[in-house]
Amino acid sequence: MTGFFPAFLFLRRALRHHKEMAQPEAAVAIVHARGEEESVLLIRRSERDDDPWSGHWSFPGGRCEPGDEDLAHTALRELEEECGIHLDRQNLEAALPPLSAGRRLRHALTVAPFLFRADSELPTVVDPEEVAEAVWVPLSVLRDPARHSLSSVPRLPREMAFPAIELNGVPLWGFTYRVITHWLRLHGDPSAVEHAGFDAACMVLDFLLAQGMKLQYGWTDQNGARKVAKVVGSIPVQTVLDHFAFPEGVIPPVNALEVRPDLIRVIGLGLEEYRIEASEL
User: What local confidence, expressed as pLDDT, does residue 51 receive?
Assistant: First the structure.
């Protein structure tokens, strides 16, 4: 599977569509420790029935409250409440573009990420009602392509695969994963982002043809974009998911891969969609 996914730079959807997005309602704190080995603070949320992000890896953060001066204040307050770490605005390095969280869980929320500097890894005292554990993750782990995969995640159908990193047996995916790829710029040349989804879709189509499926027609234009191809036969769902689970040596340049017997959907970095439809003749 060598060379399946070319390397591309970070997702720029938030920058491209920020005028269309709702105003942020919540904020998260990205605490970057500049010690001997650079690391970032992540928390695993406690298991709660009323929390759509129950059990997920995330950054410390939460919704803006009436007493908060602004969203940066929200991030700092949540950091202290959830992890017992007190920082102030002097530690603020950057405000990252807002992103939507929870869209696939039907709890869409626009969140503002703020990057804070720490001279070293700080001790944590977590609020057990909110946080199951807090860990400092080396940036070398997050930057290692071998740690990234396309995998199923809790609460969503198994035919859906998302870019993820496994931490302590739990996938780090979704909003937090996308913020990390933005911040660390884990994909390649920014000028190639627009082509990433189509290149990935072409690789998937080539794989289906190599499995013996027949091409009915290749990529067709829809509103000026090449978005649909059609094959004959039944798509081997598990074979496709297994094959593309671990792209060798690169970070998956897609937001999602959905594989069903009659359809494959490739969602690119800009949330553009490519479809490979299958039919029996």
Answer: 64
CB 79 within 8 A of CB 125: no
Tokens of residue 255, six digits: 């937001």
pLDDT in tens, 87-141: 999 999 999 999 887 655 456 789 999 999 999 999 999 999 999 999 999 999 9
Rounded distance, CA 41 to CA 142, Å?
Answer: 12
CA distance 92 to 171: 28
Contacts of 102 (CB under 8 A, 6+ apart): 52, 53, 108, 109, 174, 175
Distances (CA, A) of 42 to 70, 99, 110, 216: 22, 18, 19, 47
Return the CATH number of 13-139, one of 3.40.640.10, 3.40.50.10320, 2.30.30.100, 3.90.79.10: 3.90.79.10
What's the predicted TM-score (pTM) here?
0.84
The full set of domain ranges for the chain reads 13-139
Rounded Cα distance between 31 and 84, Å, is 13
Q: Which residues pair with 268 in a beta bridge?
A: 254
- Bridge partners of residue 156, in order along the sequence: none
HSE-up (13 A, CA, CB side) for residue 234? 4
Confidence category of residue 189, pLDDT binned at 50, 70, 90: low
